[in-house]
Amino acid sequence: MGTNFAAWRSPALWVGLALLCLLTYGRALTLPLISDDYLQIQLGRDYGPASQWGALAADALYRCRATSILITHWTEAIVGPNPITYNLTGLLIHFLNCGLVVSLGVWKPIGFVSSIPAALIFAFLERPHEAVIWYSALPELLVFTFTIAALVAWIQYCQTGHGSWYAASAVAFALALLSKESGVVFVPLAFLIAGWRRELWWRLAPAVAVSVWYFFSIHAARDTHLHFNDGTFSLSAPFWTTELRTIGRLVGVWGAAALLILAAWRRDWRMIAGCFTWMVITLLPYSFLTYQSSAPSRHTYLAAVGVAFLLAAAWLALRERFPRHGRWVAALATVCVLQQAGYLWTYKHRQLLDRAMPTERLVAAAQNHQGPIQVRCFPFPRKIAELSLSVTGARGVWLAKEGESAPLELDFCSLSGQSEAGRR
């Protein structure tokens, strides 16, 4: 298909991407706000107005999530705090990101012949679902958007030498760093794309310098930085164990089958190595966790591109190996799509409704109440309960202190086993 943008002109491609996104995530549009979503909305209110950008810049944690905070603020300002609006925002950005996966085909070693099926697969992969469904994971979507955009512009610069592409890459990289700390993965990925062309290495020197400054500016604020003090991560964590477990879960059964197909019939070791290198690099910022042994699904969103290209390569190998059995290959692809979407529409949907239930129950109780509410065994931090009341506009209602009597009591002790990873 060449390395130009002719592939973008195909209406069938965009219709296919849209249908796969809707098929996989359509039911999630009906979900209510979920725990940390209230914090995300409050951050938009606190830091989103232009008059508060100075305060945002001074916050070592949330200035690294500035893009999501501004989008949240503008979304609420335009259409109000309706859950379907926030859910639709995540889905639309996911659709855009699928298009960016297509654009990776401008790199000659990949080509659109690989990037188009990879984008179609990425549209329905369920493993990174939290990034799309859970609105408070908006930073994951946006760091993906700007990191991939920076990489595509960098690829174009490497192949054409046009300075405009270099400038576009620099701007997108800056926006990636304003989306989440993991935007620094652009640097090692850009070096891999540059290959052994040392004249291009020097062009990456500014990005390296900015990344170093970015890290030390965060580390310098460690005394007030939330994640340096809440036990979220540690540089002494067993990161390789976490990394390998996360990759294993991300690859899953379908990825393992793809590996067997590629090893048996195509033996494209370079493609396999490239996919796993991508996963290792993009998961590394999330592998210093201390609160669980593998990264949450929302943190695998960027890494899932590696799995998408792995599955795409296996699908192309099957088509080449069995050219007369196209219907069977198409049937296998259909089974894969339905399995991934079905898992989200059934088991995961129920799980997300259960996660939303405590705040939904509290908000519903506050609608017909005035005065204090005593909440027992609330499964999330108390701040989430307070935010759920303030964000939804509950007036004349507040949470009673521990042990204080109140005319209305809500008991969540039966849910005490339910845990929340929190805002990571």
Structural summary, described in words:
The chain is built from 17 helices and three strands. With 424 residues, it is mostly helical. It has one domain (5-332). A three-stranded parallel beta sheet has the order 2-1-3, with helices on one face. The protein is globular and about 70 Å long. Residues 417-424 have low confidence and may be disordered.
The mean pLDDT is 89
Which percent range describes the beta-strand content? under 5%
Report helical residue fraction.
55-70%
Helix and strand composition category: mainly alpha
Keywords:
424 residues, mainly alpha, 3-stranded parallel β-sheet, 62% helix, disordered C terminus
Short summary of the structure?
This protein has 424 residues and is mostly helical. It has helices at 11-25, 37-47, 53-58, 66-79, 83-103, 112-124, 129-133, 138-160, 163-177, 186-194, 198-201, 205-220, 239-266, 269-283, 304-321, 326-367, 382-391, and strands at 371-376, 397-399, 408-411.
